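Sequence only, no structure available. Ideas?
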Amino acid sequence: MAQPGSPLTTHVLNTAMGVPGSNMTILLYKQDSSAAAWNLITTGITNSDGRCPGLITRELFTPGVYKLHFDTDRYWGCLGEESFYPYVEIVFTIRNPVDKFHIPLLLSRFSYSTYRGS
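Reply:
I predicted one. Tokens follow.
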């Protein structure tokens, strides 16, 4: 797992309950364009603040297409709830890996949204 200060961060917010989305499993993939496949880079679990620090090191963060996979079905199930979306995947392109990228997930059982933060 990467050290704190990762160039890529995420934050899950449970907007239905107004709380951080803690204990959610997140998988980070990078696309292998030559094989049209996704390679798993790392997995993590959000902390009590809904954050998953240290997803990737600066050295491994190279230009390309990445995907964050959020296990929303398990998350809602642990809360005794059902979700319309069994998972959420956010696919994004990194062209300049020296920048910092923050990709939050705003989540309820029946909707989600995201944006590029700083």
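The beta strands are 8-14, 19-20, 25-32, 37-45, 64-70, 88-94, 101-107, 112-114.
Hope that gets you unstuck.
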